[in-house]
User: Fold CHK kinase-like domain-containing protein from Temnothorax longispinosus.
Amino acid sequence: MDKNGPRDTGMAESMLRREDPAKVGKRQLDSGDRYILETGRRTAKGDNYSSDMIRVTAEFSRDQGDSKITEKKSIIVKVSPIAEGVRQDFIKLSGVFDIEILMMSDTLDKMNKLLGPEYRLSGKGLYVQNKNPTLLVIEDLAPLGFRMADRLSGLDLAHTILALDGLARFHAASVAICEEEPKQKEMYTKGIFNDQYPLELRNFFVMSCKALADEVVNWPGMKKYSEKIAKLADHIYKIGENASKLCEDEFNVINHGDFWVNNMLFKYDNDGKPVQHICVDLCVYTSPAIDLQYFLSTSPSPDVIENKRDVLLNEYLGALSATMKQLGCKTQPPTMEELKATLKRRASYGMISSFSVLPIVLCCKTEVKDLGEIMNPDTFSSPGLKSESYKKLMMKRIPMYDEWGLLDL
Assistant:
């Protein structure tokens, strides 16, 4: 990956229009090429929070003998937020985008080489620019047939199994890398819950919890839970810290850290069946229960998570064990008993994901908020809390959390 980028200033798209796409795209063109450069938004509002994503498409024409050859190529440029505000401040102070760049340019590249092209975990990282603005250029997977699944309907069993297979390979490859390079563990120590993060992030979880309590009080038979959730709010971030804390005597991996439906792409066969999964990168070295709780609480459809949980855990553990064996890992994978035990110990991580992230997942597209709106106390709202699908799910989950003792301080 090219790390010696240009140093131009300016807004993202105007900067990209000034840049030679050969330079931005890892100098992929010959100097004699002629090209037309186009830029456009890669994602809709609410689809990506840590950066602005832009698709850059270049149409090339060059002479080859007596004929002219025309090609079209595209890349994805992820730019650290340029507009001033809460979102920019959070991304800078937390280092979230820097962690993604580190993962793409170092660890993930090594993991992909271990697994081979058949099981690659992400698109190729092509280029990094470290400031003015900070950006990451990656391969555009759309021309290869990859696309996002529908977050509102939730992943069906086929999609969920494919995603868990990909996650298991991600975790297994991280074990192999950490055995080879123990320093990799020290590169990913923050995650979502960290006492060094700015107050805005902590406030997001507190405000999400309080907003849920205000909503739940209106649900039939749920008033007693509303009161418990309200009391939990001021402690919710610390609960998240404790749930995600590294325990050296457990089985640990580099977690993806933000493994939900919007951060993955699927490829389909001619019958519309998903056949390949790619995860798009907040990584943290700790128990794999963090990724599993987060994903299982936010992304599968209600039917899948309520009726196929054991199937999903068997699929994940089977793929994890097989991949670790294939890669020659010295570390032993967890047993099913050990995996279920750590999932139970870290169940509050899934609860917090249901309280804060799931409303974002289930928010209809016309009401989606950007990160600045979500994290600003003056503009905070979570429209997804009012969706019928969220209410239906949480009227089952909240009593379960209470039964497990998760609502008690």
User: Anything to note?
Assistant: Strands lie at 34-41, 52-64, 67-79, 125-129, 135-139, 253-255, 264-268, 274-279, 284-286. Confidence is low (pLDDT under 50) at residues 3-32. The CA atoms of residues 46 and 370 lie 5 Å apart. The domain at 147-404 is CATH 3.90.1200 (Aminoglycoside 3'-phosphotransferase; Chain: A, domain 2).
